[in-house]
Write a structure and sequence with these properties.
Elements lengths: L4 H14 L1 H9 L10 H4 L7 H5 L16 E4 L9 E4 L1 H18 L6 E6 L7 H14 L5 E5 L5 H10 L6 E6 L1 H13 L8 E7 L5 H11 L8 E7 L3 E5 L2 H12 L1 H6 L10 E3 L5 E6 L2 E7 L3 E14 L1 H12 L1 H10 L5 E7 L4 E3 L2 E3 L1 H8 L8 E12 L4 E10 L7 H18 L1 H10 L5 E6 L18
Parallel strand pairs: 3-4, 3-5, 5-6, 6-7, 17-18
Antiparallel strand pairs: 1-2, 7-8, 9-13, 10-11, 11-12, 12-13, 14-15, 16-17
Helix pairs in contact: 1-2, 5-6, 10-13, 12-13, 14-15, 15-16
Length: 471
Amino acid sequence: MKKGFSEALSFFHKTAGDTPAYAQFLSSNNVDPRTIQSEEDFIRLPTVSKKNYLNAYPYRTLFPNEQIPTTISASSGSSGVPFFWPRGHHQDIDGGMVHERIFREIFQIHEKRTLVIVCFAMGSWIGGTFTKSACEWVAEQEGYHLSVATPGIEMDDVMRVLQHLAPFFESVVIAGYPPFVMDVVHTASAQQISLQSYDLHFLLAGENFSDDWRIALHSVAGIQCTYTSSVTIYGTADAGVLGHETPGTQYLRILIYNTSELANLLNVIFGFSPSVVQYDETKRFFEVDDGMLLFTADAGLPLIRYTIGDSGQLFEKDRIVDVVRSVCGDDEANRLEQLLWDCPIIILGQRYDVSASFYALNIYPEHIYMALSSEELLPFVTGKFMVDVQSINDHKDQHLIIHVELKYNVVEEESLLERTHHKITEYLERHNAEYHKLRKELGERARAHVVFHPHGDEQFIIKHAKHKRIQ
C-alpha cells in the first residue's frame, strides 16, 4: 500500500459522510462510498475540479456539516474567476509545521534572533496572511526567538524594515513572490542597504524560476548561494503548502538542467529548470492521472482527488536516486541520496490552462520566461514580461508582442533588442511544436516582437498577489 493512502482513504469516508456537496457529487456519479476500500477502488473515483464541483454546488454545502472555517482567502484568478478559500486553525498549524521544518533543517535559524519580513501581498490573497500565521505559530515553539514584520508589497515599508529594524536581529528571512523579492534586493542595493551584513535567507512562492535567476538574486543581495540560502514553496490558495524545495531537490534540478539524458528519462524539457519539491504524503496524498497532478487533502474545505491544473510526475526517493545513478554515476547519486529528505518528490511541468492565443495556437509563458532567464539576457532584464497578441491588417494577421522590463540602470540598445527578439523566438521554436510549424509557414510574420520598458514601469509594478503575464 502506498504510504499515505490509509489516511487518504479514511479522509474520503469522513468527507462522504459529513460533507453534503461531496455526498451528492458521489451519488450523481453512481458511487457508493461503502464500496471504496482499496487503492484500486480509490483511483476509480471521479476527480473534482472548480468546474465540476466547487462551482457546481452551493458554497456552504462544500464544508463538513456546512460549517465555514474562520479565515478566508481568495485565489489569484490567473486561470479564471477568483474563488474564496477558507482555512481553520488546523490548516494554520499544518502550515506552521512546514515552515518550522524549513527554518530549522534548511535555514538553521532556530535559537537565533530571527526577523521574517513578509513581502507577499497582505490583502485577500493567501500568501501574506498564511505566511504570517505560520510564522507566528513557529514563534510560539520552544527554541525560537522569531518576530514577524508584514510590510507586504509596499516597497517603501520594506526598505524601512530592512534599514531600521533588521539590524537588531541575528538572522533575516525575506518571504515573497520571486519577481517582487528581486525588486526588493535591487532597491536595497540602490539605497545602499547592506544586505550582506545579515544572515539572510529567502522564502519564495508563487512562480518558478531558473537557477541562474536564483544565483543572480543572491549575487545582488551580496550573499553566498547555497542549497540552504533560499527555498521555494509549492503552495496554493486551494490547500496551503503542498510541498517545498529541499537541498536535494535543488541539487536534482541542476542535474536535470545540465544533463540531457537525465532530462529525457524524466520527461523534462532539456535546458529548463522545473520546480522540484518534496512533500509529506500523510498530509497531501498525490496521484498522477494522464500527466496531471491530483491531490487529496484536509484543506479548509475537503478535497478528494482534486485537479489543480498542474502537470507533473511523482517519484520515490530510491527511484530517483537509481535513475541519477544510471546516468550521472555514483558520486552524483550518492550526493543526491544524502541531500534528499525521506519523502516523495514532485517534478512539476507547465500549466496548460494559462496561455495566449496566437493564430489559434497556445503561447505558454514558461517558454518566454526560459528565454529571458538565459545566460545572455539575465544580466539585462528582470524576468517580468507581458504577452500581448494584437490583430492587424483588418484582423487578417496578428502580432505577438512581448513587453519586457529592463533591470535597474540598463539602457535600451538596438543590439540588446535584437538579441532578445532572437532568443525568445528561438525558445518558442525549440519548445513549442505548434509554434515551430507556424514559423515555417509564416516566416517573419510569426516572429515575436519585443518592446522594452524601463525598470519600475507602471505596468510591471506588482500591486496584487502576482504579476500578470497574459494581457
